Records
---
Amino acid sequence: MRVTIHRDGGMLGRRVGGRVDTTSLPPGRRDPLESALSDPGRLRRAAGVTPPAGAADVPTYEVTIPSGHFVISALCGDADLVAALEAAVRETGTR
Amino acid sequence: MTQCIIPPHMVESMKRRGSAEQREQAARLEAQAVAYRAEREAAAPPQAFLGARPATGQPTVTREVYDAGSSWDLPGRLVRSEGDPETQDESADAAYDGAGLTYDLFLQEYQRDSLDGRGMTLVSSVHVGQQLNNAFWDGSQMAYGDGDGELFLPFARSLSVVGHELTHGVVQFSGGLEYRDQSGALNESCADVFGSLVVQRHLGQSAAEADWLIGAEILGPAVTGEALRSMKAPGTAYDDDVLGVDPQPFHMDDYVITTADHGGVHINSGIPNHAFYLLAMLLGGNAWESAGAIWYDTLQAVRNPLVTFADWAAATVDQATTRFGTGSREALLTRRSWKLVGVDI
C-alpha cells in the first residue's frame, strides 16, 4: 500500500512527511499501518472531527491513500489511528 | 473561507491601492470577516469573554498530572495530584512544577485565578504518543510528548514550553484569538510572551538579563541551534540540516504569506514577539510588571477573535494609556515598539 502523509502545525509549526510504501516494511511495522490506513470510512470519520475551539499547537495529518485524501486532526478522537499516522510520518524518515 | 488565505493587512492594501475591482473584492472580504466574527461570538461558550475578573478570597492552585503511557488516550493514568510528593518521573514533576509557576504568575501579577479565572484544575498529560516531537493544548488540558531524543527532548522539561501551553488556555478563556493568520500569530505570541515571563519571574531576571528563548531546554543533541524560537532575535533560533533555518520574521516587511501552519501562526508570531521584547527592553526592569500587564490587559480587552496586528497594537497603546496615563512613558514606548517592527498605529 502506498501512502503519502504529512504532519503540519504542532508547537514547531513544521510540515514534515513524504511517501511510504508499506509493502517494504517488516510485518511488525507494516500490519498496524495497513490496518489503520486501509479503512476509508474510519479515515473519513476522523477527518470529520474538528478540534475544540481554543485548542492550539495540535498537529494535523494530511493523508493520501489510493481511495482518497484526508485531513485529520490529532484530536480526532481515534487514538489508535493518530498513533498509526505518527508511525507513518516516522516511516518517511522525517521528524 | 477566503479570509483564511488573504491576511487582513493585504485586504487593507487592496482597499487603499487596488483597482476598483480589487477594492470591491476587499469590501466583500471585510464583510465576510464581520459575518464570521458575529457567528463566532454567537457560538462562544458561556465562559468566553470573561474579561479581567480579579481573584477574590484566597485562591489556590489545583494540579493533576497524568501519564499517557506513550498513547494518545488522554489524560491517561493519574500520577500526581495537588500536594502529592514528587513522582521521580522527571517529566511529570516538571509539568507539575511548571503549572504551579505559571499559575503563580497569573495570580500574583494579574490577579487571575487559573486559566479560566475561576480556579480551573490544571490538567497535564506527559509521555503522550511515541517519541512525539510536540506539546499542545487541547482545549481543556496540556499534553507533552517525550521527543525523539535526537532532535527533541521531553517537552515538559522546558518551563517556557509549559508556560506557553498553559497560556493558550488563558487566551481561550479570555475570549479567544482565532487560530489562523494574524489572530493565530497573536495567539501564539501571547503564549510565547507569558511563557517567557514565567521563566523570567521564576529566575528573578530583568528584561536585560533574560535570554528571551522559548524551548531552549528541549533541543536535542543532534540540533544546531539554541531554542525553538527567540523573541530577542526572531529568525536566529536554529540553523540546522534537519530542522532548516528558523523562519520567523521580526518586521512586517518580511511577513510570511502561507497556507501552511494555519497561515503561519508559528512564523509570523515573531513580529509581535519582538515588539513585546522591545517594549520590555525600552521600559527596563522586570518584563512581567509594566510590559506584561499591558499585554495581559489587552488580552482581556480585545473582543475580536480575528484581531489583526494593527488592531492589537492599537489596543496595547489604549491599555497602556488606561493603566499609566495619556502621554505616559509606557504608552509612548508601546507605540514606538510597534513602529520598530513595522506595525503603524
Note: The two ends of chain A are 22 Å apart (CA to CA).
---
Amino acid sequence: MRSIWAVAVNTVKQALRMKIALIFILLLAVLLPIMALTGTGDNTFKGRLQTFVSYGLSLTNLLLCLLTLIVSVFTLTSDIEHRQIYTVITKPIRRSQFIFGKLLGVLLLSGALLVLFSGVIYGIVVYAPNYLHPSQSELAQANNEFYTARKALSPPDPDVSKEVAEARNRLTKSGDIDQIYAGMSSAEIDEQLTNLRRVAGRTADVGQELIWEFENVRPSDPNGSLFIRFKIEVAVTPPDAQIYSRWAVGDYRRYVAGTAPMYPFQRKDPVKSFREIEIPAAAVADDGYLAVVFLNEPLNDTPVTFPLADGIKVLYKADTFTANFIRAVLIIACRQIFLACLGIFGATFLSLPVALLLCIAVFFTANVSAFVIESFDYINSESTFFIYLYTIKLFVSLMPQFDKYSPSQYLVPAELLSWSTLGWVVFYLVCIKSMLLLILALTVFSFRELARIII
Amino acid sequence: MEYAVETFSLTKIFSDWWGRHKVYAVDDLNLKIKRNEVFGLLGPNGSGKTTTIKVLLGLLHPTKGRSLCLGGHATDPKISARIGFLPEESYLYKYLNARETLDFYGRLFGLDRDVRKTRIEALLDMVGLKAVANRAVGTFSKGMARRIGLAQALINDPDLLILDEPTTGLDPIGTRQIKDLIIKLAQRGKTVLLCSHLLADVEDVCDRIAILYGGKVQANGKVAELLQQTDKRQIITDAISDEAIEKIKRIVHAENAECEVSSPMNKLETFFINTVVAAQRSSKQTSGAVSTTKIGNFLTVESVSRNILDKLVATPVSQETPAESPATEDTTPAKIAETQPDNQLLRDLTESTTPMQPVPTGLNAETQPVQTDVPTPPDQVKEDVLDQLTGRAKAQSEKHEEKDDAKAGESGDA
C-alpha cells in the first residue's frame, strides 16, 4: 500500500512539475470567469445561468477528460521510455501495484481538479443573484426552473400496433409498399409506420384538441408548482412564428364527471423552442393522475405537432439543485476513471504518440457513440457490408456513450438526474468497461519485457 | 544457500518482429557468484553484461535457462527488498530534487519515516550532494546524477548490490569512493556484482571476475590468480644506495635472471586527489558535487573498524599479498565506528605514496598498525567536508587531539 501511494504521489508531482496539468489549469482558470461574464443566453437571468452551466461544465468536462488521458498515457510511457522504470520496478513493488499507483495518481490529480473547477462553477452559479441583481420575477423563474432538480415525465407512448398492421395490409394489397419503402426490411417499415402513427397522435389540426394523461406524478411539495415543458412544431410557420393555444390541466376523469374544474391557460408561444407553463401542484389528483389538454386555436390556421422525444413533459421538483449538480459532476468523475484506465492500458504496450492517438480516437468516438449506434440502426443490414457493419457496430457498442448521459443535459433544464441513473453509469462505465481495461492493462504489463524498447 | 547469484544456461536471444532470431545477447551463461564476494563482469561494449543484469532483475525474460538472486526470483518483493541496483545510466525523475528522489525510493522499500530521514541525510552526505539536495535532479551533471543513482541503490542497505558501470561520468574521487564503498560493503558480508569495462576499477576491488564476449564467458576466476605473473618477482625497497643496487644485481645475475631497477611512479589517481585537496584547502567554491570520502553511517554500522580503510590505503602492501587473511585482528569497538567521520582518509590518501592495491575482501595479515587516530565526537560527523579539509579542520583536529588526550583514559581507545 505504501509503495502504491509513493508511486501515486510521484505521478501527481510529475504531471504538475512537467507542466502538463498547468496548461489545463490555466485554460480553465481563464476561460471559466470569461464565460461567466460574457454568456448571455436569451438575455434573461435564467438564460445566463443555463448558458454558463452548459458551456462551463462542458468545457471542464472536455479539458479534464483530455488531461486525464494525456497524463495517464504520458506518465507510464515516459517512465518506460526514459527507463526510470528500471530503478522503480526492481524495488519491492509488484507490477500490479505500480499500475495501481499510477492510476491512483492520475485520478487524484484529475479528481482534485474536477472538485476545484466544478466548485468554481457551482460558486459562480449559486452566487449569481448577488452580483447580477435579477428582478424579482426573474429570480422566481430561476428558482423554479433552474435552481432545482425536477423529475421529468413523458406521456406514455400509445399502443399503435393494430393501426400499423392495418396500414401495412392496406399498402401491401394496393402494392404501394414496394414503391414507398423500396429496399427496406419489414422491421424498418414497421418502425416507420409506428412513428408515423405516433406523430399523428401528437398532432392537432386547426381547432382540434389533444389530451395526454400522466400517471405517478408525485411532487414533493403539495403547495409548490409543476411545469409543463413543451416544444411546438408546425406545418406552416405563421408570419410572427407564434402559436395561440388554450390549455387545461387537472383531473380529467372528475372534470368529465362534473365533480372538479380544470385549470385553464391561454398562451401565445414561439415555435420550435422549449416553453414552460407553471401550474399549481394541487392540479394533480391524489392518486398521482394528471391530464393535460391542448387546443389548437383556429386563429393559427396550421396543424401543430409536439415532437416525439421531447415534445411534452411534466416536470416537478424532486430534489435540490446542489444534489443534482453533485451527481452531474460524479458522471464526469466516472468518465475520468474510464479514461484513466484507457490511457494506462494504451501505455502498457504502445509508445506515447500512438497510445495518445488511440485514446483520443476512443474519447471522441465515445462522445458521439450513441448517435453513431442510432445511425447504424438505420443502415440496411441486408447490404453487402453486412459483416463489416456488425464488426464496427460491435466495436462502437463497446465504447462508453458519453453523449447519452451528459451532465448539462440534466442541469440546463433542471431535470432530475436520479441516483439510479448515476448507478447505471457507475455500473457500466466503471464496474464493467473500466475494470475490463484495467484487467487488460495489468495482464499486458505483467508479462511485458520492460527493458525492451518499443519503437 | 551458497550462492548470491546463480544462472543456469541462461540464454537471451533478441529476435526481430517476425520472431526470427537475430542476436545472441547472452549465450548459455552459467554464473555462480558466492555470498560475500565482489564479482566483476567484464567485457567490451555489447558483450551481454547489461543484458545479463536485466535478465537477473526480471526486466527481460530469458529465452532459455533461469537465474536466481539470493535464492529466489528478483521480482519477488521479498528478494528485491534486499537488492540494490544501479543501472548503466542513472535513470532518475528529472523533476524531483535529490532529497525527494531518495525519499521516493525509500518509500518504495516501505522504510519508516525516521529511517528514511536518517538514511537520506547520511547518503546525501556520503555522495557529497547535501548542498544541492533541493535542486532538481534534471539540472545535475552526469556525475552528480550518478552519485544520486548510487545513493538510491544503497538506501535499503542491500545484501546484493548490482552496479552497472558505476563509475562512468564520475570524477576520480567519486570513483575512488565507490571502490572504497564496495570494499567496505564486502567486509560487512554483502555481495557485489560489478559490471564494467573499466579494467582498473575492477582490478582494484573484485575478488573474482568473468570476462564476457559474444554473450559467452571467455575467462573466469580469481583476480589474483588470473593476473599474478608466477615467473616474475618484484621487490620494493626504500631509496637505497647505488652500491646496494649493484650488489643485488650481482646476486640476481648469479641466479641467471634479469633485473630492472626504477623508482615507482605515482598513480594519476593519487596525483589528482592531491591536487583537488590542495584546491579545497584554499577554500575554492564549487557548484557541483562536493568530493567526500564519507560512507553512509548506516552502511557501516556493523563494520569491524573505522580504520580499516585508512589502514588499507596507508599501508604499502606488495602486489603479491595473499588475499585470504580474515578480518580478525582489529580490536577497535564497532560502536565507535558508527560515529567516525572519514575525514582522515583523504589526508592519508594524499600522504600515501603507494599505488592503490587490489584489495581482498578480508583484511591483510600484513596490515601495519596505523598512526594513532583520534576519535572525533559524534556531532562532528555531519560537518561540512570542505571545512574539515581546510585549515580550520586542521586546527580543530589539533584541538581534538588535546581534548582526546584528556579523554583517552575514560574511553580507553587512544
Note: The longest helix of chain B spans residues 391-411.
